[in-house]
Write a structure and sequence with these properties.
Layout (H helix, E strand, L loop, with lengths): L6 E6 L5 H14 L4 E5 L6 H10 L7 H24 L3 E5 L2 H9 L13 H5 L10 E6 L2 H5 L12 H21 L3 E6 L4 H12 L29
Parallel strand pairs: 1-3, 1-4, 2-3, 4-5
Helix pairs in contact: 1-8, 2-3, 4-7
The chain binds 2'-deoxyguanosine-5'-monophosphate.
The site of 2'-deoxyguanosine-5'-monophosphate (DGP) has 13 residues, from helix 3 and helix 4.
Length: 234
């Protein structure tokens, strides 16, 4: 059976070091001559991404449902090209993915209501059937530590109490991904030195670089009975 490229995602709170680590990893892969591609979500360069960018910078206001669907659409814009790249043997690395979609939207609160405006299941629905990652590396960091890092607080969600809630939802997502037994969710300490985190990431990614014959799966298809990653991507 033909080998395909592996699909790797890096997730984490704001200022957890994701983008730095994603860039270091892609450089390492390219130095090692492993066909690879980095995709960053949200991709702020597309027409949909420009609406998201303006919202994140608080230059515009959008209904919570609308912005959630825009983030998802921003991933669907490139879903078929991710599949094509994987099938061509390219390792695809995403800096954030659908997991951020759930964690940031489901963490929202309204001052006048005890109920979150967007339910967890509602937040997951638009991303059902996206290509599923083989490995998700979650860079864990305490919000109070993230806050001390440069640039924190510039954008809409960069507030310590928001990040606390986001972290709790990421925990739930990780447990569900792991218990479904398809695709790995690995928690790494994002509070360590940059070089140490780089080493741990490389130790996990290197074995994947020879490719895989496993079919590309669909994210959260047939969610009943906790079967999060079930259908084949064919
Ligand atoms: P970044 O460019 O990685 O700093 O991400 C920008 C911000 O957008 C960050 O606070 C996390 C948030 N974010 C990323 N993806 C999503 C998503 O799909 N939905 C929502 N609501 N927020 C997201």
């Amino acid at each position: 059976m033909a080998h395909r490229g592996p699909f790797v995602v890096i997730e984490g709170l704001d200022r957890s070091g994701k983008s730095t680590q994603a860039e270091a990893l892609i450089k390492r892969l390219q130095d090692e001559k492993i066909p690879s591609k980095l995709i960053k979500f949200p991709d702020r360069s597309t027409p949909i991404g420009k609406l998201i960018d303006s919202y994140l910078r608080s230059e515009s206001e959008l209904d919570d449902h609308v912005v959630h669907l825009l983030f998802s659409a921003n991933r669907w814009e490139v879903a078929s090209s991710i599949v094509k790249d994987l099938q061509a043997g390219t390792l695809v690395l995403c800096d954030r993915y659908a997991f951020s979609g759930i964690a940031f939207s489901a963490s929202k609160l309204k001052p006048d209501s005890p109920e979150p405006p967007l339910a967890y299941e509602w937040c997951r629905a638009p991303d059902v059937s996206l290509p599923a990652p083989d490995l998700t590396l979650f860079l864990d960091i305490l919000p109070e530590k993230a806050k001390e890092r440069g640039g924190f607080g510039e954008e809409r969600y960069e507030k310590e109490e928001v990040q606390e809630r986001v972290r709790v939802i990421f925990d739930r997502i990780g447990e569900e991904v792991e218990s479904a037994g398809a695709g790995r969710w690995l928690v790494l300490d994002g509070g360590l030195d940059q070089e140490e985190v780089e080493k741990s990431i490389w130790a996990e990614v290197k074995p994947l670089t020879k490719g895989t014959t496993a079919p590309i799966q669909k994210l959260w298809d047939k969610t009943r009975e906790a079967a999060m990653l079930s259908a084949l991507y064919i």
